[in-house]
Amino acid sequence: xxxxxxxxxxxxxxxxxxxxxxxxxxxxxxxxxxxxxxxxxxxxxxxxxxxxxxxxxxxxxxxxxxxxxxxxxxxxxxxxxxxxxxxxxxxxxxxxxxxxxxxxxxxxxxxxxxxxxxxxxxxxxxxxxxxxxxxxxxxxxxxxxxxxxxxxxxxxxxxxxxxxxxxxxxxxxxxxxxxxxxxxxxxxxxxxxxxxxxxxxxxx
Length: 204
Ligand SMILES: [Zn+2]
Known about the structure:
By secondary structure, the protein is α+β, with helices and mostly antiparallel strands. It has helices at 3-19, 75-84, 97-102, 142-156, 176-203, and strands spanning 29-33, 39-42, 56-59, 90-94, 109-113, 130-136, 161-164, 168-173. It has one domain (3-203): L-fuculose-1-phosphate Aldolase. The protein contains 5 helices and 8 strands; from the N terminus they run H-E-E-E-H-E-H-E-E-H-E-E-H. Strands 3-2-1-4-8-7-6-5 form an 8-stranded mixed beta sheet, sandwiched between helices. It is globular and about 45 Å long. Bound molecules: zinc ion (ZN).
């Protein structure tokens, strides 16, 4: 994938995520790995519903920007994923209400099992399985947070997504379309979680 294709693909998913309310008020960021090994990523602080090609910048795999525009403030969380797994070629990060509510679970993780939608995740072929989404404490020091995510994944496996408490969601995929499919499935699961909890509360 070259820079132009990455810009086109990332703008499309950012616009869709914005239209669905998942990246309000300039939040969220999107990236893709280029054939050269460089990373294309949204610049800091742009309205994700109005992105233009120049709002997606190229940087080295070490995070050095090619040009004067500043990559996303959360660049290190994207690089941590690209660095650990060459099969990851796209990363999406959103700040939806659903993800933020889910991230406040006091158990430090959220689990889903026996749901048909789980087949949306790469490598899952049956509903008869479960996934665990870990929740990390929010931290304005992104390097500390990236190191914590890496430590967790080294011990517990990479999984398919993680939440940052009171903040939002990270997920990824082999390409931009797969990462968007994972995002849609996760939003479905967070919707499901909220509705099933409110149903339980009504019965009490
Ligand atoms: Zn964020």
